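User: For a reading group we're discussing how well predicted structures match intuition. Take MmsAB operon regulatory protein. Before you show the prediction, I'll give you the sequence so everyone sees exactly what went in.
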Amino acid sequence: MKYVSELYPRPALATSESLAWRGVRLEHHLSAAMELPAHVHEQHLLLLYQSESPMLVRQQQGSQFHQELFRPGTLGLYPGGEYGAVSWNKPADTIHLFIDNEHLETMARQSLDLAYLKLPFRFQFDDALLGQLGRQLLQAVGTQHALSLLYIESMTNTLCYHLIEHYASYERRPAHVPRLAPSVLSRIDTYLEAHADALITVEIMASLANLSAFHFARLFKQTTGMSPYQYVIGWKIRLACQRLRADEATMADISDALGFATPAHFSAAFKRVMGVTPRAFQRGRA
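Assistant: Thanks. Here is the predicted 3D structure of MmsAB operon regulatory protein, as structure tokens, for the group to look at:
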């Protein structure tokens, strides 16, 4: 596992390497003005500049050249990957926060229900909360009792969630919507065919699915996009259309065979679904 700070000529003044910090490693460095050669780091790197006076930082990143003045509190965010040479023109006081990508993705998946996560490259930016968390984590290096670890974990979690919420691009997982099984819908259709002339209630349909009427109605709407009443009426009107096309029965006979209270009730329901009356539909098909 390669850390960019391993290329520095001097070791870190402070590090959390030996501590039980999950997913985050901190290093505090004082380095002279220098140029760091091209390098690779696997972890995401959040860099906090603490130098008392502004310093000029330059970096060649592919075809892009970055040059900015970094002041106390300025941050840089560098996702894991390959980087070109970087240089600074004054002694630098920096806090390095290496964030494990797997740890970040686990938090995103388990706590935020995210399916995809990507941190952006930010050469220079300001964020008061991230700066404060970096300085507090530096102060916490060296404390090892249980309460300190809980405090540190709360800070590292806050830091990771803040990065995800305010800087990462991500996609949420599609919500799982419970649905009725195809076998249940088939059972309902079979019942409708056998009892076309009967009054079909939600309770009857729910019993075919072994569910309460309330739970069934909710799942049925999520599965078909229609309420049970709309589904039954639609099914009966489609059957009525077949019989009207075949011209095999009178309007009253079709109404009675499909369980409508009166021919007028049948005609009104037919017009709501088809946009025309049964007679107009039949004439149009003649």
